[in-house]
Design goal:
heterodimer; A: about 160 residues; alpha/beta; Hypothetical Protein Ychn, Chain: A; 5-stranded parallel β-sheet; about 15% strand; globular; B: about 100 residues; mainly alpha; two-stranded antiparallel sheet; about 45% helix; about 10% strand
Chain lengths: ~160, ~100
């Protein structure tokens, strides 16, 4: 079993995680890592960029789906993956399995991570590109920031891109 | 296995100080573990969480996750982090005399 054997000096103090994809499997790893960081007393920033913004958009964040096309690891031939309802079915199945592990759906997870003390930000370049504004985002999003501000916030910690 | 002494009673613990046998636990031991974890006093809010964790563990064999604690109405996520700063799930489990939680959430 992994353990830091009391080497407190080696403990990570801060992580800044970039979520750049908008599929269920693109969003969850970053959310789990941010939540896990807070559970271990590690400071956590989440920076949502490009399609990752879907995970914090009021109208979208409860509709995040698994992509069933173009993913060989799904073991679903692409011709089948394009059939109506396939993505819905795969998403439903995955959410059910995650629920068994107490991994919450995206909206509940975003709220939990925020309440755990993590900071959530939207990427300004993407917000401008998609003509979005603060009103499009859930209230847990603290601010819309540019990449320079992201690096300022991330200073002294680790950066993880997902 | 290392042994720690609580109230002159020897109790088996793992390398990180979690009790090996949850049955060895007592409220006095909880108070002592809490102090070592930087929580000087256990309030009624703390006890509510600790009691629920032990109840769940003995009824279902599982240490409740943060989500389970939240959705059971025992404690909000914000309060849990306030009550057990720096690692709420692990600290609460340790003080409740349970093993180290192994889940990712």
């Amino acid at each position: 079993m992994a353990s830091n054997n009391g080497k407190e000096n080696n403990k990570i103090q801060k992580v800044s995680i970039v979520i750049s994809r908008g599929s269920l499997d693109g969003v969850y790893p970053g959310l789990i890592m941010a939540n896990g960081a807070r559970m271990d007393g590690i400071e956590a920033n989440l920076f949502f960029t490009f399609w990752g913004l879907e995970a914090i958009m009021k109208k979208r964040y409860d509709k995040i789906k698994v992509a069933t096309v173009g993913n060989p690891a799904m073991h679903i031939p692409s011709l089948i993956g394009i059939l109506p309802g396939m993505s819905w079915l795969a998403t439903k199945k995955m959410l059910k399995e995650m629920d068994k592990l107490d991994i919450p759906p995206v909206p509940e997870f975003i709220e939990m991570i925020h309440d755990a003390g993590a900071h959530l930000y939207a990427c300004k370049a993407t917000v401008d590109m998609f003509h979005l504004s603060k009103d499009d985002f859930v209230p847990q999003v603290e601010d819309i920031i540019n990449v320079g501000t992201f690096y300022d916030l991330a200073a002294g910690g680790q950066i993880i891109f997902t | 296995m290392p042994v720690e002494v609580f109230n002159q009673k020897q109790v088996e613990v793992d390398e990180e100080g979690f009790l090996v046998n949850p049955q060895d636990w007592s409220e006095d031991i909880a108070v002592e573990i809490a102090r070592k974890e930087g929580i000087p006093e256990l309030t009624e809010e703390h006890w509510k969480v600790i009691r629920f964790m032990r109840k769940e563990y003995f009824e279902n064999g599982q240490i409740p996750t943060i989500r389970r604690l939240k959705n059971s109405g025992v404690v909000s996520v914000k309060d849990l982090y306030r009550l057990f700063p720096g690692g709420p799930a692990k600290k609460a489990a340790k003080i409740a005399g349970l093993h180290k939680p192994q889940g990712c959430v």
